[in-house]
Amino acid sequence: MFRRLTSSALALAAMTxxxxxxxxxxxVWQSWVDYYQSVGYSVTEGSRDKAGSTLTLRDVLIAxxxxxxxxxxxxxxxxxxxxxxxxxKTVFAEEMSLDVAxxxxxxxxxxxxxxxxxxxxxxxxxxxxEDMTHEFDYPSIELVMTTMTDNGEETPLPMSxxxxxxxxxxxxxxxxxxxxxxxMNSEALTFxxxxxxxxxxxxxxxxxxxGLNMKGGMDAxxxxxxxxxxxxxxxxxxxxxxxxxxxxxVNATFDYEGVDEEGQPSQxxxxxxxxxxxxxxxxxxxxxxxxxxxxxxxxxxxxxxxxFPVSYGIENAGVEMQLPVSQSDEAQPFKFTYLLNGVTMSxxxxxxxxPTAKLPRDPASLELDLSGLMKVTRDVFAMPExxxxxxxxxxxxxxxxxxxxxxxxxxxxxxxxGFEPVEMNINKLALNLLGANLLATGELKATEEGIGAPIGHxxxxxxxxxxxxxxxxxxxxxxxxxxxxxxxxxxxxxxPVEGSPDKMATDLELKEGGSIFANGQQIK
Length: 524
Known about the structure:
Pfam families: DUF2125. By secondary structure, the protein is of the alpha+beta class. The protein has helices spanning 2-16, 25-38, 231-237, 347-350, 384-401, 409-417, 465-474, 480-493, and strands at 42-44, 47-51, 54-66, 69-82, 88-92, 95-103, 109-117, 122-128, 131-150, 153-173, 178-196, 202-220, 240-247, 249-259, 265-274, 277-284, 287-294, 297-302, 310-314, 316-323, 328-345, 364-376, 419-433, 436-447, 450-463, 495-497, 500-510, 516-518, 521-522. A hairpin with a 7-residue loop joins strand 18 and strand 19 (310-314).
């Protein structure tokens, strides 16, 4: 999937910023052909002609894909004009098409035709053959879908995506390594659709990302004729890439209608309003990283089946993940963080389980910060045939060392995913909810049985927990006959902190053999 997404995204990006142009029209066209071939696509032209300083290509086909899925761009014409000042201007046909086809996870064949419209497009290229800058201006870019064919049956698929007032640049330096940098600003990315399912349900949606900026870069050493198929080798040779997306605001609406699990009519509408969002991506042989964060978000859902709107808000949120991707016998660092801050609900939603407003309604929050070390047992971007060869070799070796039934489920999972956690640090686990809060830290290390049976310790502190239990009991969310059991369970794991009557703590020790001690008392 990573390879497919990478090649598809690069292919479409090159369509909107045709790359690797040079100081003459012929060199512009050849560099474009070279680029697509480098990422596994073929380029064929129906015809070409040169009139004065303009080279025109007609009926151009750009085709490729991976893992049983193909993409074919059909470009009626590309005009490349020498401006006479060392610059070349490229103009695409204002309307072209994209055919996407392949096989879905259930084994069925599908095909989706897409119309691409680029009115008034233009790119001006300057510089030297080994160091070129392409400045592009697109008043609008629109992708329109109307139908989808699934196993020979055509069904409506009215969806569209568009970019407005897009400008930017693509800078390319060829050599060792090749370097690419891009920066694109758009007034908005819009989307809309009207999708139906097999049961007769329908969803209409529309929205936009406003004030959009996309930037990134790639260093590509070596010559790889098919980057899609050779991603693992390219990473080992030093390929690295990064990208970032910022938007000032996000808004979306949707309406749905259909039937519920009991066959009864169901319908509703929702809206999403969000402030700024940021997303970042990086990839090299040293690891893969994702980071996504958002400012304030408000969501509302209304339905005739619900007596009041369901709404909630979030002050800010974020998630970050960094993972190694290259096989090594040495453990490598990883990181995962998650933040959900300032979560609020409407009073109508609160009243469903707390009509007398006895529970504190302060904004809730959750923060998780994990880091550690893991072994990567196989290269994440290795092609399936390479993995199969490695798996056969590993199986032969394992057969000599152990009986087949000696592998645990966890070990089998590690072989499948390629990741084997060795150490995990709980740098912070913080939860604030209903007037109570939890703060925990810890360190865990894998044993011979894996990280599922670790050794280490966890320290946790709580405040407001007794008061919360009292309130939950008073409003009936914890029945009185269960209250004693809840308090006994709390006393088993937590002890009062001296000098702080409403504060409790837990010290968990996990030891060899699976034994667990809570505050010095063995509980397992």
